Amino acid sequence: xxxxxxxxxxxRKVPKDLTQPTxxxxxxxxxxxxxxxxxxxxxxxNFISPDIVSDLFVDNPGNLSGTINVHLKISLPRLKCEYVGxxxxxxxxxxxxxxxxxxxxxxIVDGKGCLFSADFHINKVPGNFHVSxxxxxxxxxxxxxxxxxxxxxxxxxxxxxxxxAALRDASFGPLDGHRALExxxxxxxxxxxxxxxxxxxxxxxxxxxxxxxxxxxxxxxQLGRSPAIWFKYELNPITVxxxxxxxxxxxxxxxxxxxxxxxxxxxxxxxxxxxxASEAFKKFELGKLS
Length: 290
Fold this sequence. Notes:
Layout: H1 23-48, E1 51-58, E2 67-76, E3 85-90, E4 95-96, E5 103-108, E6 113-123, E7 127-132, E8 148-156, H2 161-166, E9 178-180, E10 187-201, E11 207-221, E12 229-235, E13 238-245, H3 249-286
Parallel strand pairs: 10-12, 10-13
Antiparallel strand pairs: 1-13, 2-6, 2-8, 3-4, 3-7, 5-6, 7-12, 8-9, 8-11, 10-11
Helix pairs in contact: 1-3
């Protein structure tokens, strides 16, 4: 006796001449396929777009030299470039006046102002850096006016563009675009910064060490002393780590199966209900409904 394997088929086929196409079924089929395509596209987009999750730990990441790279770009529309300099101090005894390495000055406002940018490093201890006229050969005759626009202040490495867009609500550059143009000429500008180490890890495992910061700004009159723009910083021992995470492939396959199966099931129920109601209504019109 030969066993018929076809008896195990749970998906029995119905001949086409025993099926009945309907306009309602066609509409439901089109809606069903459109809905499935939309859901599958959404699921695929969520699968290929990694999530960014965060956690906290106590650490002090960075290179072995124990320094942090800083990028500063600032406009001073009422102070000529010949007077502008950068000074750095910290609790390790560092004291640099008029740092010139990796600095650029460009005249603005018909030479009456200066666009100043600098790339430098600071030690991982409390300290400050400030834009001042302390290193100038001579001081401005009418006094230094430190009205300014801060274009960019960044600690650490820049984030990849995709990560920066995803983390736009984080505090990687809260002072960017800060304007201080309406204060008296003899005003000293102080920015008190709390710097938070931040590590971003992408899907490949590559780490980017950057720093977020919060700030409090204040302006005070500097009588008898030369004003400046101060950035006084302290480091937080808590490190924030962001890392990209993509769901495993089996979750995507499970979601696809659930979408396809669920959509066909619900569409079949709807079509069956509408078809049954339509047939009952036709019988009622013909008076054959018992």
